[in-house]
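Model it.
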Amino acid sequence: MQSQKPPRPTGVTIIAILALAIGVIGLIGGAMLIGVSAMFASIPLLGLGGIFAGLTLIIAGVVLFFAFIWVLVGWGFLNGKGWSWTVGLIFSFLGVLLAIGAAATGSLTAIVGVLIWGLMIYYLFTGPVKSFFGKGPAINPAYANPPAASRPSFSPTSFVGPSVAGASTGSFGGSHTSSNTARFCNSCGSTVSPGLTKCSNCGASL
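Modeled.
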């Protein structure tokens, strides 16, 4: 039986949108740097134009590379790809290390970066997020939609006790003497017709 993929957490959607936004901005920035590199190459600056153009082109390549990764990570987060969870975790650990290094130089804003990346790591290890990325236990449809419990059925005959000759049973097993059952006189032993209060043979009271 296949397991049902859990719904995407809201936090994962927000992270995916941010990653896509960073990737798009990086792609635009990289394209602009390529244009700047071409501009440097066309302007003679005492022989330095080619050097500036080459350095700018290298920077543009690095920016485009990481921008492409951010776009892939954002797409992977939206679709619950396990590799995107791993890449996001690696980026978060690298962000913590870089923020700690910047905080060691006396940067107060780096402390905020440590907290943000630390919260990112904590969030990626939460149960719903790991399940969405296939890193934790998935939801089984049999448990997601359990069948309704069946009520025990009772029939009227289940309360009826065993019947005995000459007696009828009630709804709860109680018995009473039928009005059609033959009776006998205690004095003379003659048969007494139903409904009589005295013996028709000897006159004894019944």
